[in-house]
């Protein structure tokens, strides 16, 4: 599966369950670990877990098996390693604390055009 398609599948899965402030960062040329990072916020530990599980389900439906995952039990921060795409789902305070967007400053960044209540499901 092409990286951009995998990013879209992950983003759609996050939007489906009302993930907040979904951001995609292109880190090609910045690290050899992955090509893209998708970062989203959840409103509670239950929401973070649900968002991460939905990404796993939707990517598996596309034949993508995760290399690994962390934090699915706690719900403060979940990391899904899909190979060329890494998905981080965090509670808002945790996301602000780690500030991954600033850490990868200079990498190309784009925000999904999804606003709550816009009718985009």
From TrEMBL:
Predominant subcellular localization, coarse grouping: cytoplasm
Subcellular location: Cytoplasm
Entry similarity comment: Belongs to the Iojap/RsfS family.
Subunit record text: Interacts with ribosomal protein uL14 (rplN).
NCBIfam families: rsfS_iojap_ybeB
Function comment: Functions as a ribosomal silencing factor. Interacts with ribosomal protein uL14 (rplN), blocking formation of intersubunit bridge B8. Prevents association of the 30S and 50S ribosomal subunits and the formation of functional ribosomes, thus repressing translation.
Record protein name field: Ribosomal silencing factor RsfS
Organism of derivation: Stutzerimonas tarimensis
Lineage: Bacteria, Pseudomonadati, Pseudomonadota, Gammaproteobacteria, Pseudomonadales
């Amino acid at each position: 599966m092409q990286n951009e398609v995998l990013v879209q599948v992950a983003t759609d899965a996050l939007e489906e369950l009302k993930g907040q402030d979904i951001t995609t960062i292109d880190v090609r040329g910045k690290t050899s670990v992955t090509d893209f990072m998708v970062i989203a916020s959840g409103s509670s530990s239950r929401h973070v877990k649900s968002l991460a599980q939905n990404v796993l389900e939707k990517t598996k439906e596309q034949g993508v098996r995760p290399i690994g995952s962390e934090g699915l039990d706690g719900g403060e921060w979940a990391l899904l390693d899909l190979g060329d795409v890494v998905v981080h789902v965090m509670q808002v305070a945790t996301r602000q604390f780690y500030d991954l967007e600033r850490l990868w400053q200079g990498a190309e960044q784009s925000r999904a055009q999804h606003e709550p209540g816009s009718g985009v499901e």
